[in-house]
């Protein structure tokens, strides 16, 4: 049967009625406003740097492990598929998916945790806020404004892709979002659009499955151990039944492929049930619903919780990963402390940004420099700063 995309849902975002950009610009003759946002994100330096930023493994540990870039592409593919099937604006869902990780520092969660520690006296660090700042001020690509001047719907979707941000607003790190919100309110305490919710759940689908794939490939656990995990077990068992004697590599790949399908199908069924039950008509109905519209069913949500618990125990806290996390934290901590104590060792353009700033603002500049690094650049920069053999 040939796939036929559904008619645009009444509650989908429409680029023709977008709330626009903070700074008015002429419309594009070739692209919708949301497609234009997507293209602006793809052309950023921050997006290119995702190719050597990682989540669990460090970039040099293997060519086949996911990076933030490949993860973002996988999320975008799943988000676009879900959005199309639900009658949503697939350009907006894809755009939010491609932009959601731009603020992550090097070395994945270990890097984020260390910058949170170092920035605690200076207003804190939050990768979601850092993403927002990359999009609104840190990327300098246009002569008349900082940032990318993205549409309201894209920025709202990215800053709220994990749900309402109301509970975050008392954190000092969120001051940058609040400052923007004062100029162009993003309705921070409501849910985001259905497109943003599709991107968020695509993120869940992608990272859980690619962590299973990467963990198996790295030898941190075996597929036989995953058989006991409720969500994965039936899928892996079915693959072995359908393809007896299949080698481990193809068994792994087929299991992950099917598992993505199981999760996506569940999201479609549960979301359609919620649409019928809630009778949402407009995009603002989605925001005011009081709960997510795009969601997993309770059984699959419970299965995902069990899978995350397995991955936390067997992968994220594996001794090999712990060793890498320890090295990563030490690299970032030592660089941050050195730059605070001796800012004149910063590259000239970054040192110039510190002129006239108080200590918290200066620490933020240093944090921006470090957060923008790739894994490889951070390792090389640390070697140049601290290892004598790098001087020869």
Average pLDDT confidence is 93
What low-confidence regions span 5 or more consecutive residues with pLDDT below 50? none
Cα(first) to Cα(last) distance is 66 Å
Sketch the major β-sheet. none
Number of beta-strand segments: 0
**Number of helical regions:** 18
Helix content: 55-70%
**What general outline do the C-alpha atoms trace?**
globular
β-sheet strand percentage: under 5%
Structural class: mainly alpha
Briefly summarize what is shown:
The chain has 392 residues and is an all-alpha fold.
3D architecture notes:
The model has no long low-confidence stretch (mean pLDDT 93). Helix content is 59%, strand content 0%. α4 crosses α9. The radius of gyration is 22 Å and the shape is globular. It starts with 32 loop residues before the first helix and ends in a 6-residue tail after the last helix. It is mainly α and 392 residues long.
Please outline the helices and strands:
Blueprint: H1 33-42, H2 45-49, H3 68-86, H4 90-99, H5 108-119, H6 127-138, H7 152-159, H8 175-183, H9 194-217, H10 223-226, H11 233-242, H12 248-278, H13 283-287, H14 298-316, H15 319-341, H16 348-353, H17 359-371, H18 375-386
Q: Keywords, please?
A:
single chain; 392 residues; mainly alpha; 18 helices
């Amino acid at each position: 049967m040939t796939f036929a995309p559904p008619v645009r849902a009444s509650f989908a975002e429409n680029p023709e009625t977008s709330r626009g950009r903070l700074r008015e610009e002429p419309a594009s003759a070739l692209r919708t406003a949301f497609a234009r946002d997507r293209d602006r994100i793809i052309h950023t330096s921050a997006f290119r740097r995702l190719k050597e930023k990682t989540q669990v493994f460090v970039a040099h540990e293997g060519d086949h492990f996911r990076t933030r870039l490949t993860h973002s592409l996988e999320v975008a593919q799943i988000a676009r598929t879900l959005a199309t099937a639900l009658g949503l604006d697939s350009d907006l869902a894809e755009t939010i998916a491609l932009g959601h990780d731009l603020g992550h520092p090097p070395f994945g969660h270990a890097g984020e945790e260390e910058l949170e520690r170092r920035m605690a006296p200076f207003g804190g660090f939050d990768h979601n806020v850092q993403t927002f700042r990359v999009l609104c001020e840190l990327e300098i690509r246009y002569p008349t404004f900082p940032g990318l001047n993205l549409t309201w719907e894209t920025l709202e979707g990215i800053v709220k892709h994990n749900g309402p941000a109301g509970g975050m607003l008392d954190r000092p790190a969120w001051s940058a979002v609040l400052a923007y919100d004062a100029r162009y309110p993003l309705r921070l305490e409501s849910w985001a659009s259905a497109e943003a919710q599709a991107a968020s759940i695509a993120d869940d689908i992608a990272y859980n499955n690619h962590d299973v794939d990467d963990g198996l490939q790295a030898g941190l656990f075996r597929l036989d151990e995953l058989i006991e995990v409720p969500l994965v077990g039936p899928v892996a068992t079915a693959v072995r039944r359908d393809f007896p004697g299949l080698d481990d590599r193809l068994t792994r790949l087929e299991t992950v492929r099917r598992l993505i399908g199981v999760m996506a199908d569940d999201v479609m069924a549960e979301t359609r049930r919620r649409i019928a039950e809630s009778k949402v008509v407009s995009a603002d109905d989605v925001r005011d619903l009081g709960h997510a519209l795009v969601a997993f069913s309770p059984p699959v949500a419970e299965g995902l919780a069990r899978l995350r618990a397995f991955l936390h125990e067997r992968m994220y806290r594996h001794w090999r990963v712990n060793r890498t996390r320890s090295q990563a934290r030490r690299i970032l901590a030592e660089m941050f402390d050195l730059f605070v104590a001796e800012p004149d060792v910063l590259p000239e353009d970054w040192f110039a940004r510190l002129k006239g700033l108080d200590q918290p603002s200066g620490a933020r500049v240093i944090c921006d420099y470090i957060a923008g690094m790739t894994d490889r650049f951070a390792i090389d920069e640390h070697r140049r700063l601290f290892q004598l053999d790098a001087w020869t």
